[in-house]
Structures are given as structure tokens and as C-alpha cells.
Automatic annotation (TrEMBL):
Gene field: gspK
Keyword terms, alphabetized: Cell inner membrane, Cell membrane, Membrane, Protein transport, Transmembrane, Transmembrane helix, Transport
NCBIfam families in alphabetical order: T2SS_GspK
Localization: Cell inner membrane
Protein name, as recorded: Type II secretion system protein K
Residue span, T2SS protein K second SAM-like domain: 218-271
Extent of the signal sequence: none
Superkingdom of source: Bacteria
Length: 325
């Protein structure tokens, strides 16, 4: 016969087994739920990226159509320049805007290129310094930063008097070298001497990294009044932005037909711009910037794309994408 103690021990063993099985089952269910959620997130992220590609294609097509509609003069007809639009899609929402991607300071214009050699460009340095001063950066700091960025890009290893080459960066806590190449994304400036977080935050809305060393191709027919600083930086010295804003606010609806017409106006003429600077301004837009966001229930995907509309059809030349779940 089985004693009472043996029956108690058997019951305790059974209860322990049941408890272990219950814990394992709960753990398995939790892992299954987690795997299901991960699969759902991955599916939504994949769908969001597919929507981004579609929105990107529409942006490229739109840029081509804007240029084709008026080959000799790109204007803000229909208010396309910088206007944000939202489009509902199954399971989410797309937010998109298309802007003139040349209305910015081209950070790569700090140098000129002769074959494979990149050399500092005085006019690019001067414009960059004026832009920084008008953004509230001290004159001396602005000159140091401009020289350092030029040294970062140029081909030689000789630091400008106010710049920095490898010798400076190799002495940092985590050593690194200069790029000696064109900047691909403006975030690269964060690694350069003098570009503090505060400086970068001030500069970021106004700078771009075009895949060319041309001076910033400011389109006088699409430049908005709130972007007046980009017109004022073309002057010989930093200046008050109010006249520039007022001038852009009075621009003819169809823009200017020639650069001569534009520079003959009283405000641009007062800038005292050299011929090289006058020729950098444009009547048409080559570069377009598309800012795209796709928001799903559990996925947020953002992209900034640079479009080249110089040739038809327009083409994508650079994209920067970020994902957040």
C-alpha cells in the first residue's frame, strides 16, 4: 500500500510539473506574441519603404515636369516650392514636399576642381563666412570654420592659416583623417574643427552638399522671401536681411527673364557683386530636393532625396533615409 507521505510527495511532484509546464507555456506564448509583433513590424516597415520608393518616383517625375513646363525660367507656378502635401495610403500616410534644391549654400563650393585636384576657392570661402556671420556666428569663428571645411575637402595636406588638416584630427581622443574629397552629406561637418552642435544647428537649414564644386546656384525666380539670407550672402559684406526680404516679396509673378534684368534692380545692384557672383545666380533650377515621410501604425520612415533635372528624364543622385519603429 502507498503511504500518506508517498501520496503527498507524488502530488507535490505533479503540482511542480504542472507549474513548470505552465511557466514554459506562458514563456512560449510570450515569445510567439513577440515574434508575431516583430513580423508585423517588419511587414509594415517593408510596406513603408515601398511607399517611399513610389513617392520618390513621383517626386522625380514632378521635377522633370516643372523644368519641362518652362525650360528657360523655373518659377513657383502653383506654389510647388517647399509646399508640404499629405496622401493617405492603405495602412498609413505619406507626407511629401518638393523644393528648389539649389537654393542653399553648396558646401562643396569652398573648393574648385581641376581634374582630380581640389583647391580652396576664395569666393566660396567669403560667401560661407558671410552666411555664418549673418546667422550670428562670430566673425573670427566663421573664418576659422570656413578654412577648416575647405581643408577637409581640398586635396593637399597643408593646413590654411586658420584651418586644420590631418595633424589636428590625429591628436583627437579618437583620431581620424580629413576626407580630401567632396562632402556627400552635410552631417559630415560635425566632424570638422570648429563646427560645434550650436554651429551645426544654425547652419543646417541653409547648407547643402551638391555633387559639384560650382558656386551655389541660387535661382532668383524661386528663392522665397524667408530665404533672403542666401541672396544677402552674395554681397561684398554681411548686411541687414530686411531689404532682401522686401525685394523678394516684390518679385514679378513670372520672375525675371534674364540675369541682366535682375542685377539691374536697385537692391541686387547695391550688393556690389562681382561678375563671377552674378553669373552664379540662375533663372532655372537643376537640383530639386524631395523630403518624404511615410507613417504606418508601427513604422516611421523618412527620406531626403536630391534630384538632378538637368537631363530628361530627371534622375535621383542621392538619398538619405532614416527608420524609426
Amino acid at each position: 500500500m502507498i503511504s500518506g507521505g508517498e501520496r503527498g510527495a507524488a502530488l507535490l511532484t505533479v503540482l511542480l510539473l504542472v507549474a513548470v509546464i505552465a511557466i514554459l507555456a506562458a514563456h512560449g506564448i510570450d515569445r510567439l506574441a513577440g515574434a508575431t509583433k516583430l513580423a508585423s513590424n517588419a511587414r509594415e516597415l517593408s510596406q513603408a519603404k515601398a511607399y517611399l520608393i513610389a513617392a520618390e518616383a513621383i517626386g522625380i517625375q514632378s521635377a522633370g515636369q516643372i523644368v519641362s513646363a518652362s525650360p528657360g525660367r523655373t518659377i513657383n507656378a502653383g506654389g510647388w516650392n517647399g509646399r508640404e502635401q499629405t496622401f493617405p495610403v492603405p495602412g498609413g500616410m505619406i507626407t511629401a514636399s518638393l523644393a528648389d534644391g539649389g537654393n542653399c549654400f553648396n558646401i562643396n563650393s569652398l573648393v574648385t576642381q581641376q581634374q582630380a585636384t581640389l583647391s580652396a576657392r576664395p569666393e566660396g570661402l567669403a560667401q560661407f563666412s558671410r552666411l555664418m556671420v549673418m546667422l550670428g556666428i562670430l566673425d573670427g569663428d566663421a573664418a576659422d570654420i570656413a578654412a577648416s571645411v575647405s581643408d577637409w575637402i581640398d586635396s593637399d595636406m597643408v593646413a590654411a592659416p586658420r584651418g586644420a588638416e590631418d595633424q589636428y584630427y590625429l591628436q583627437q581622443e579618437q583620431p581620424y583623417r580629413t576626407a580630401n574629397a567632396l562632402i556627400v552629406d552635410v552631417s559630415e561637418l560635425r566632424t570638422i574643427k570648429g563646427v560645434t552642435d550650436d554651429v551645426f544647428v544654425r547652419l543646417a537649414p541653409w547648407i547643402c552638399a551638391l555633387p559639384t564644386t560650382d558656386l551655389s546656384p541660387i535661382n532668383i525666380n524661386t528663392l522665397r522671401p524667408e530665404q533672403a539670407i542666401l541672396l544677402a550672402m552674395l554681397g561684398a559684406v554681411p548686411s541687414d536681411l530686411t531689404p532682401a526680404r522686401q525685394f523678394l516679396g516684390r518679385r514679378p509673378e513670372l520672375g525675371y527673364a534674364s540675369l541682366n534684368d535682375f542685377w539691374a534692380q536697385s537692391y541686387p545692384a547695391s550688393l556690389g557683386a562681382a561678375p563671377e557672383v552674378q553669373s552664379q545666380t540662375k533663372l532655372t533650377t537643376r537640383w530639386f530636393r524631395a523630403d518624404l515621410t511615410v507613417e504606418m501604425q508601427s513604422a516611421l520612415v523618412e527620406e531626403r532625396a536630391l534630384i538632378d533635372a538637368a537631363r530628361q528624364p530627371a534622375r535621383l543622385v542621392h538619398r538619405q533615409r532614416g527608420d524609426a519603429l
